[in-house]
Amino acid sequence: MNTILITGVSRGIGRATAETFLNNGWLVYGTSTSGSVPFSHDRLTSFQLDLASAESIENFKQQFGETSLDALINNAGIGLDEDSAPPIDLTVLRRDIEVNVFGTIQITEVVHQNINANGKIISISSQMAALNQSFTYGDPSYRISKAALNMFTLNLSKDPRLVDKNISVCSFDPGWVKTDMGGPHAPRKPEEPAQELFDLITQGFETGKFYRGTSVRDW
Ligand SMILES: NC(=O)c1ccc[n+]([C@@H]2O[C@H](COP(=O)([O-])OP(=O)(O)OC[C@H]3O[C@@H](n4cnc5c(N)ncnc54)[C@H](OP(=O)(O)O)[C@@H]3O)[C@@H](O)[C@H]2O)c1
């Protein structure tokens, strides 16, 4: 049976993605900061994971052990900032980087050796991280954290430990999605990026790229 770890399945895009993989017969390991998720399935196992806490990541590592995986989706993330006007609030920046960058790097390091040959890793980034765009000032900490996450994706795609096992790595821009983070006016439903993530994982993708839907986009 195919197996996947998805961080942050308690709500939003992560929940819809977990449900999509479950509906397609996958075994899903999911996380939330509390350890519980508001839905159940006989092929879903949930874990407590706070990406801002080294202790929580270590506890997850002990519990997860050598469980083998076909895929990892780094979905859990925070933002948008309260710092919508200059200057950048360094407290907010540190918090966003702690979860979206350090925590994501640490959990990937913990589980990458569990991923089978030809496996996949997708990290959820954002249009707001794109360097090749014009935009008006706002949410700088979130933008900076997701741009750093994209560079992590590029580094990971060159990591010999993953290259040797033919593990593909990409960043994914889900668009503007109706969730607690995206708010009620977003045009996309969480089920839409969830299906795109399923298609990328099952049909494959080019390693070291930034995807919007199932197409490569500019960084
Ligand atoms: N919604 C959008 O329009 C949009 C656009 C571009 C990118 N994204 C990205 O898509 C991903 C999912 O976003 P979403 O809109 O679904 O957000 P959401 O509804 O706010 O859900 C966030 C998820 O991340 C988990 N999480 C939050 N802080 C965490 C921490 N410190 N450690 C571990 N898990 C944590 C939450 O768990 P708890 O329930 O336990 O707090 C929850 O499951 C994020 O990476 C986000 O940046 C979203």
UniProtKB/TrEMBL annotation:
UniProt-listed Pfam families: adh_short (PF00106)
Alphabetized InterPro entries for the sequence: NAD(P)-bd_dom_sf (IPR036291), SDR_enzymes (IPR052184), SDR_fam (IPR002347)
PANTHER family per record: SHORT CHAIN DEHYDROGENASE, SHORT-CHAIN DEHYDROGENASE/REDUCTASE SDR
Protein origin, superkingdom: Bacteria
Phylogenetic classification of the source organism: Bacteria, Katanobacteria
Official protein name in the record: SDR family NAD(P)-dependent oxidoreductase
Molecular function in Gene Ontology: oxidoreductase activity, acting on the CH-OH group of donors, NAD or NADP as acceptor
Record-annotated membrane-spanning stretches: none
Family label: Belongs to the short-chain dehydrogenases/reductases (SDR) family.
